[in-house]
Request: fold
Amino acid sequence: MSIEEILKIIENHPEVIIKSIEKKPELLASLILKIFPFDRIVTKEDIKMILNFMEKRFEDINKRFEDINRRFEDLNKRFEDINNRFGDINRRFEEINKRFEELRYYFDKNFEAIDRRFENINRRFEDLRYYIDKRVGLIERIMIGFNIPILLSIITILIKLFIF
Reply:
């Protein structure tokens, strides 16, 4: 039999391979040894080298994470500082608000006093106006009272002059 015939039989009946491996298992081991490229298999040194490489990579990654963590800690400190500054600013605004409230209270009190003073001044002006109106009215009456006889006498004098 030729190799081609044997390959055709194996292709058509693969169970033959299984039966032959069951009868002679060393065939499988020799087949694996022939097929598998042992010259390319990884050695202990290769594994150590890969492990060392991976360990260095993980150390680098850990260093980067530690650096990132430090940066985040710095950012957190900065935010805490900013929060503290805003707290100070808020306290200052509260103090200013208290001062404005005190000033408002002071101005309200003083404006009330000023309003009372203006009301008193207005009453005094009203009293003076009433007093002056009273006096002026008296003076007008006196002037009118004195003027009528004077006017009558001037008219009679003029009449006497022109008629006689």
Residues 1-41 form one domain. The chain has a mean pLDDT of 84. The helical segments are 3-12, 15-23, 26-35, 44-163. Residues 138 and 144 are 10 Å apart (CA to CA).
